[in-house]
Amino acid sequence: MAEHSTDNTFVDMDEQEPTGIGGWMGTLFLSWIPIVGFIMVLVWSFSSRTEESKQNWARAQLIWLLIGIAIIVVLVATGTYTTVFDYAKEHGGTFSFYSA
């Protein structure tokens, strides 16, 4: 939100300091912890006190999560998901592009 000053310049009232490397390292570390990470991504996505760059990153994380869930739903609905795991079980639990 910009406010007009008397000398015909605009002053950005919402200017924020960028997150430092340590801040991003902590953010990534927290986001990797199961359950806690998901909750924190939700908080960062929808909190009005979260800085804009972290909020956008968290929203992108949620979008990728939804895309991943949608892909899994499609694979399960078409039977492909179980076929992949059946193949893995038959071949010792691993995938190999090269036959021995």
Layout of secondary structure:
Blueprint: E1 2-4, E2 10-12, H1 21-32, H2 36-46, H3 52-78, H4 80-90
Antiparallel strand pairs: 1-2
Q: Could you describe the 3D structure shown?
A:
There is one protein chain. The chain has 100 residues and is mainly alpha-helical. It has one domain. It is 61% helix and 6% strand. The chain is built from four helices and two strands; from the N terminus they run E-E-H-H-H-H. It has a two-stranded antiparallel sheet. Strand 1 and strand 2 form a beta hairpin. Helix 1 crosses helix 2 and helix 2 crosses helix 3. The longest helix has 27 residues. The radius of gyration is 22 Å and the shape is elongated. The termini are far apart. The model has no long low-confidence stretch (mean pLDDT 82).
The side-by-side strand order for the widest beta sheet comes to 1-2
Give the low-pLDDT segments.
none
Distance between the termini: 64 Å
SSE ordering: EEHHHH
Helix tally equals: 4
List keywords for this structure.
single chain; 100 residues; mainly alpha; two-stranded antiparallel sheet; 4 helices; elongated
Please give a quick description of this structure.
By secondary structure, the chain is mostly helical. The chain has helices at residues 21-32, 36-46, 52-78, 80-90, and strands at 2-4, 10-12. The longest helix is centred in the middle third of the chain and has 27 residues, at 52-78.
